[in-house]
Structure formats: structure tokens, C-alpha cells
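Dear U.,

For the methods section draft, I wanted the exact inputs and outputs in one place so we can describe them consistently. I've listed the two proteins in the order they'll appear in the manuscript figures. Please don't edit the C-alpha cell lines directly; just add comments below if something needs changing.

First protein:
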Amino acid sequence: MSDTASNDPKPSGLPAALSAYMIWGFMPLYIALVSSVPPFEFVGWRIIWTLPVCLLIVAVRRQFSELRRAFSSPKSVLALFASATLIAVNWFIYTWAIMQNQVYATSLGYYLNPLLNVLLGTLLLGERLSKLQWLAVAIAALAVAMLSAGALTTLWISLSLALSFGLYGMVRKQVNVGSLPGLTIETIILVPVASVILLWYATSDQGSAFGSDLELSSLMVFSGVVTAIPLLLFAIAARRMPYSTLGFIQYLAPTIVFLLGLFVFGQQLRTVQLASFLLIWTAIAIFVADLWWRSRRVKATATA
């Protein structure tokens, strides 16, 4: 009698990956709905409402033991403190940029991020780049140089988003804590700071945006869902599909953001920005082609 369980195909991670990156890609539409909320206050509420969502999912997935294990390690807590700071900076810059209608700058930042990750791996982790990867990085550097000459006022947004998220990934890579438990601990670390920010707004002349309008307050509560759910989907996808394939799909999010800037937000695309995007897309094409060729060689070697 054959073992039918061993013949069952593994569930595909593609639906989870596409869902995660589509949520991240359409995030500007959600932020536009809460644009009346000051960016600092919105990020504060985002932190506050992410925590219960994370704790609920952790409970469902029975990952409290992983939380306790991470909290018992001072080294892990210190690393997660650093990653929490980086992700909070990333959230604020992204929120502020979208509210200021700098959609292209955010898109470019997340296009740059994978190439920056490769460069960081070389500089900080001693990883080696292939000739094609060096070419991709060089082309991306040329795109940044063009922006510094013709769009300096928005370049800092793109570089800050790419660098903060790139360093965040580097730090999280060094900590042996799952994505969701890690986000939960990061959120716990950020809650005191978020509470101080929200208290300041509540007691200032501006007053808190939360509670003033039912629809707006509901949208702010929803920020916890749009923060935790895509990360959970990403974690599921990362376990079920090759990382090189996942790396290719990640370009879906900044592509959606770029198209939103062009067709929904009506943001003017300057010549220097278009030229920079063309260079970045060329660099990404070279980078992805190199990953594909390498994976084909590895499979061919394994088969032989």
C-alpha cells in the first residue's frame, strides 16, 4: 500500500506572496483615506493597533513560546530594539511621503531596496557579488546620481526608505525569531513611544484625530490589520516557495505604487524621474536574470 500523504503536493506559496505584495502595493490608497491625520499620530495609532492583531495571530498559531524565548535573550531583545527603531522610521517616512503626494519617491525607494540589500550583504556580511550583480548595482547608482542632480528634494525619501528597510532586513536576518513574533516584540517595544506621541496630540491644541469621526477612527484601527496580515502572508510564502522567486514577486508592490502615482494620484512624472526609473528597471532586469541563470545552473548541477 503506497503512502499517499508523501505524494500530496505541497501547498503553493504564490497566492500568499501575491496577496502580501498587493496589499503593500495598494497601501497608498489606504493612507490617502487617513491623510487628515498627522503622520506622527497615524504611525502612533498604527503601532498601538498592530499589537492586538499580532497577539491574536500569535495565539491562533500558538507561538507564545517563541515570544518568551526571544524575550529571555538580551541579545535578541537588543537587536529587535534596533529593528523596531528602523521600521518605525520607515513607516513614518513612507506615511509622510504619501501624504505629501511623493508617490514616485516611495516607489523608487522600494525598487532600490533589493539592490541595496545585495550591496549591504557585500559590505557588512562579506557576501560576494557576481559581475552581473555589480553591473546592476552600478546602474542603480547612476540612477541615484541622476536624481541627485535633477530631483534632489525627493531623493532623500527614496534613499531613506531603501536604507531603513534594508538595514531592518539585515538586523532581522541576524535574529533567530520568526517574522510574526518578531513584529509582535518590535511593536511592544514601540508602544511606550507611540503612547507618548498620542498623549501629546490628545493634550495639544490640535487634539487627537481618533474619536472625532467614526469612519476615520475605524480606518485608524484597521491600520493594525494592514500591518500584520501582509507580514503573515509573506512569512507563509517564504516557507513555501524559492526565495529567488519571492524576490522577483517583490517588485509587484513598487510597480503598483508607481502606477497609482501615474494614474490615480495624477502626480507629474518629470523627465529625470522617468530616466531614473528606466535605469532602475534595467538594473532589476539584469539582477533577476542573474538570479534565474544561477538557479538554473544549480538545478543542472544537482541533476547531473
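Second protein (the one for the lower panel):
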Amino acid sequence: MSETRSTSVPFMKMHGLGNDFVVIDARDRSVDVTPALAVGIADRHRGVGFDQLTVISESDAGDAHLTFYNADGSTAGACGNATRCIARHLLNQTGTSALTLTTERGTLYAKDAGEGLTSVNMGHPQLSWDEIPLAEEMDTLELPIEGAPSATGMGNPHCTFFVEDAEAISLDQFGPRYEHHPLYPQRTNVQVASLVGPDHIRMRVWERGVGLTLASGSSSCATAVAAARRGLTGRKVRIDLDGGTLWIDWAEDGVWMTGATAHVFDGHFTADWLASL
């Protein structure tokens, strides 16, 4: 039995606009996170429940390294809202106003935006078909799919549909249909978005490996980029999600995302429960 399964393991529960996370700080102890462990923790009846599990570890190139797991046990290269939540936790912990975090996506910069808000630079969007990635070469602005969605990479793949009314779409049916579309060999996050005013978007999300979520930071960044590329908005937009509002700024140095976070509670996974997985 691994050390993880034979001892209790502390964790934090956080959320960004209802996009919820279990966070394990592995900087001071070794934690063996397997797909089975991630799935067990994700179970909202027998575990804790989350949209993503995030593990904090030491980084030689930043203040900390983040690894993300989806509710189905698969990994994700990026998770914007979890990054903001952990950035806020580390900013409070260290008393600093800015820090760097390393991820599979690359090095991300975070800062205190004032009034309890946290900003993270999610890096430059990936706009070429092979970076996203798509199955074959094509124009990523309008895919050859009904509805002509846009494809964008933010360290994970996205498929954004611009529709008349985002709230009228049955995402529990619409989302799975496109998450597994053959153009996306690694599956994709699916967004439906509608314009509600100048530089103001209403968006809903079906998240790859998770399902319907109240918010998604990387999806918000991808939608803002797609809207600007299509000439629907400028490069600074407000995005209203089911769980609240994010402000996205596609700047020269990358896509900045700003919003609220919450550290809900701390707990421990017991050794007996871990051993049962």
C-alpha cells in the first residue's frame, strides 16, 4: 500500500463562480494521485465532489506547480478558475501581490486585482489546427460543423458556438455530441455563447471529462478570443456564466482572466477511505 493510502491526506475545497475544486498541497508530502483516486474523490455521494482536482507541488521555475485532473480521472493541461483559486490562496499565504505558477500549459502569472478579485494570465491562445489540436488541417475560425463553431486552444481544446440565446440550448444533450466530435482527437470543451451587449457575452459550458459546469475560466478565455477574432467584440469583454461573471482581456502578453474565488473549507481524507479505493 502506498503512503498516500495508509495515512490521512489533507485537502482544501475551493470554487471560482461555482466551478469547484478539491486541492491537495503536495509541497511538503508525497501524494500518489492515480486516476482511481481522482474518480473516488470526484464522487459527490461517496467522496467529496469536484469539477477538477488540483495538486500543488514544488516548482523550480515558479512559486508552485499545478497539475489538474478531471472528474473522470483524465488530466487537463489548464484550468483557469482553479489557477485563480490557488493563486489567491498562495497570495494570502505569502503576503505578496504577484506570483508565478507552472503548469503543463506553461508558466502563468497571477496577481491581486483588488476588491477581492484575482487575475491570472492564461498565456497566448493556440489558434492553429495542430496546436489545439484538431484531427486535420483547417481554418479554426469557422469549423466545418453545423453552426460553424470556432476552435481555440488554451492549453486544452475548445469549441465555441455563437448562438442567439445560450440559455435556450439543452447542454446536457448538445455538449456530449460535440465533446466527442471526430475533429477533436483529445475531445473538447464545448461553449454556447450569445451577445447581450457591446463587449458583453452570456456563455454556458460543457466541460470535457466533467459535464455541465457553472463556470470555466479557460472556456471563458477561449470564447473571448473567438468573439474578438470574429469581430463580434473587442479584446476586453465581460462574460456572464451560470455561476457568475469573469472579465477577460486578450492583451499583448496573453489572455488575462479576472474574477472572484472562494476557499470553502479544509478537510482530511481518512486512511480507511483512501485504502478502499
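Candidate sentences for the figure legend, describing the second protein: The chain has two domains: 3-121+261-275, 150-252. The two ends are 11 Å apart (CA to CA).

Thanks,
Y.
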